[in-house]
Amino acid sequence: MARDPNERSDRARRSGLAVPGQTRMTERRRSPSSARIGTVATTGAITLTVMRAMVAAADALSSELEDEGHKRLAAADLARPGTLLTERARHYQSALRQFVKDWLRDRQQMTWLVDAASGRTLSVDTAGTVGAALAADIELVLAEDQPLNRLRRRFARDGLGLAVACRTRRVAPDPVLDPARSTAARAWTLFVRVARHTDRRVRTVRVELLDAAETSTLTLGGTEVPLAADFTAPVALTLGLEQKPAAVAYGLRDGARRSTVEGFSALTPFGLECAPLVLLEGAGLSLTTMAQIANEVAGDPTLRARYQVWVYRYPVAVPLLFAASTLRADLMRFAARVEAATGRPQAKRVVVVARGPGAVVAEALLTDSGSALWDAVFRVPPARLNLEPPDRALLETLLIWKRAAPVARTLALSEPENTDGLVIGIGARAVQLLQRQTPGFRGAVERIYGRAKQQLHAPDAESAELYPEPVSQAIAAATLATDRALLALLAGSPTASPKTPCAGSPLKRILTSLRTGP
Known about the structure:
Elements: H1 5-15, H2 23-29, E1 36-37, E2 40-41, H3 48-68, H4 75-78, H5 84-103, E3 111-115, E4 121-124, E5 130-131, E6 138-142, E7 156-157, E8 162-168, E9 186-196, E10 202-211, E11 217-220, E12 223-226, E13 229-230, H6 232-241, E14 264-266, E15 275-281, H7 287-299, H8 301-306, E16 307-313, H9 320-342, E17 350-354, H10 357-363, H11 372-377, H12 389-399, E18 407-412, H13 419-435, H14 439-451, H15 461-466, H16 470-492, H17 506-516
Parallel strand pairs: 5-10, 15-16, 15-17, 17-18
Antiparallel strand pairs: 1-2, 3-4, 3-10, 6-8, 7-13, 8-9, 9-10, 11-12, 14-16
């Protein structure tokens, strides 16, 4: 006996399944945002047509892979023209792209129980997250939508899935280095897996987020298939968000450092086994060169596993000695933070890359100063200096130091062509900056140089001619003497890093040294 169609419709509605021939009516009556589970509105609602296309494309691709019976496929196998497998993979990627664009509008939900025929959500699974957890402060950007921001090459891997760049938005004013949170944008692959349910009319649809650096394949339909990835998009995203700190006299702390780790800004993702690769920005490496270095490291599997790229901006309007001292203090604190986060000693793990004046600042990390710099300024040893203990300790920190233990080597591409002219120019700027400082700051300098003036070396004729004021004259003389002594110390130091001999552009020389060095 024929059944009443209304009876079939009522029974289907009670079971939550669509009735054949009534799909369009269901779509018109229920918008994605109004779909409900009992009395609670669903989250992460996907358009019915998009969900239906996603299920159909995933089913077709899985069936084709099962029929082919391959154990493993390469990216070229999924892109071979004229094959049914290529067509299925193309349809899956197209459906995935539309699905992700819907999902990015509301990312709270990651697993759905879906009617395969209509694409309608039957229920959602609040505990169904697979892969990386998606916290509220995590931002996802499609790699295909991310501009390159000065990068010249794009490093990408072909395969299934959608490449995304992920970053954690920092909210703390002084964030602690935390391996569980990215200190720079990270390359992830977004994949949607559709699994058959015990009821063959139902599918489980699950969003999976996979770290592209750690996972290059996944199993689908009994076959190991490659995952897509884009390692340039995260670097470009980080570069676009990077804010350059404002210049501050004598390199004093400023508000722009709140988004850094002891003044170091990450350009590539944190890794427990990665050694810090520090690029010195200032009068040396340009922003464009540093961006290319970070991109090349992120795109090379060997370099990506070996290094994490950081940028440090040393103060350029101060004497070389002061810039070197500031870098040394920040680097020691930075290495201690990395060591605490990784549990791995950082002795001789940090690599510093610089050129021009930055090369002088970097190479000072590899030397012991002894008493050379102190003797260039004062005629008596520290113990006999006529100063209060705090002032004497400050001068000792500035003028007497040991080799920076965390530094393994420096890649000094070149040094300034006219070092004496550089020293004179910096000395003049140092005095001018001092004259613009607050009375309290000037008072501290005058106290040190004033009380110890009898124990200073006599100002040279050049300083005496330029600065008639005694304190300014003493500062100019000390600046010239210490910076010249620093250059002489580096020139004669057996531990100073040799210049990189490789021919070619600065970028080529840096990459060659990174690949061949320890």
